[in-house]
Amino acid sequence: MDTLPAKLQAVMARIDRVARQYGRDPTGISLLAVSKTRPATDIRRLASLGQRAFSESYLREGMAKIAELRALNLEWHFIGALQGNKTRPIAENFDWVHSVDRLPMAERLAAQRPADKLPLSVCLQVNVSGETSKGGVSVTQAPAMARAIANLPGLRLRGLMTIPAPNDDFLAQRRAFRGLRELFEQLKTDGLLLDTLSMGMSHDLEAAIAEGATVVRVGTAIFGERTSG
Ligand SMILES: *Cc1c(COP(=O)(O)O)cnc(C)c1O
Fold this sequence. Notes:
The chain is α/β, with parallel strands linked by helices.
């Protein structure tokens, strides 16, 4: 049975339902399909259903898919951990990076972005749960880092991203996302031109949308359980 179209449809219906429930315009929330570990054939099929934005966490794997699917003109987002010796292919081939959490990485991406391309759209990854294992700057470090990134040519700081600690409680999920939204609003009040709150995954996209997410990053709910990665 062909479940990919049905799953994509179900995720879009979840986004639509929760947006209306919280008085938000569903068109203000975009679905980023998390295609890490998934074959290019699945991406091709989703693209034929109208899904344009895909994201990858592992550089080599992502580069292979970008090359294979070049003719489809998809939008590619890098969401994995950044390493200094691997920024160049990201700067050259991706449209977005959601996982910027160190200034030297931002500086490398900025310097390596080809001059004939639009600036690379980036989000500052913030750790709202205070875990040491997850990437992201602390809420207190974020404003200075955001200002520094916003000043780099070659990059366009679009907003903030977070991966909160897993939690099954809706109100606890909301609390974490609210922390990111409040920071986002503070940065905008301080004069930064931001339009993106990248938060919410398969298990917590409702809470994220309730708190203002503009991009939800969804893998499992579209493609099924991952066997690795
Ligand atoms: C894997 C991943 C996701 C998707 O998670 P699912 O639970 O499969 O929806 C979202 N964001 C990031 C940064 C990821 O690494």
